[in-house]
Amino acid sequence: MLSFPGQELYWDHSLGRVERWYCRLFGAPIVGLRIRLRRLWHLLPPAATRVLDGGCGRGVITRQLAWRYPRALIDAIDQNQHGQQINQEIAKICHIGNCRFLVRDLTTLDSTGEYDLIISVDNLEHIENDLDVLRRFYQAMQPNGRLVVHVPHYYRRWPLLKWSRNFDVPGHVRPGYHLPELIERVRKVGFTIERAGFSYGFLENLANNLSYAISAAEQKNRVLYALLFPVLNLIAWLGQWGNPRMGAGVWCVAHRPSTEPKPTSTDDTT
Fold this sequence. Notes:
The chain is of the alpha/beta class. The chain has helices at 17-26, 31-43, 60-68, 81-93, 130-140, 179-188, 202-215, 222-238; strands spanning 50-54, 73-78, 99-103, 115-121, 141-152, 155-157, 163-165, 192-199, 249-255. Helix content is 36%, strand content 21%. The protein has a seven-stranded mixed β-sheet with strand order 3-2-1-4-5-9-8, sandwiched between helices.
């Protein structure tokens, strides 16, 4: 297993030579990704055999799952065909044989009882009918299988000492979720909630906001951001312990019960 998540992006030839070598040295230079991955690691079950990564992007989390569960078969779904081809090539180079990078849309997922672990990290905020996707996750889950969901919180501490509505991000159809809202939506489709909470505590949120202020999601000041990323990641790393009572992300862990509960409602509008 590589030392830093995303070091394998060195083999992504869609990146420039300097970018690839930077990933080789420091891993994926995305503060928010590192924060989410560290939080996710504490939420995952100790074992899994069939895993779905719903909305895998560049595949960094998928490959980490493959190393964590070497005996599992992992399906990683994303709509980006070119990106999935690159992900598959990287997996081959890194001798990761337990991943399948599939070009699919989560809104048309039609598996039944296939997975014992489904994760979805910062994807539901991109999907208009998120409740339908959660229902599809439920259908695809084995009885007693685990669901781990992470999404942006509706509020973000911005500026430093003031909570305000999360800023708009390209591709998002909503700014985020309130924690009770996420819990209710997951419960509504039949899952049983095990635990839920916030991510991005004070130091993590500070580091992430500074990264966004510098780079505007990698759109500007890329050299300055590259120089400061190790420091920002260290700040975020120092803030990873504990369970924040408020944060810029929310998560929940749930399972599909072995006996079918009666759905609370079929109304998709709430």
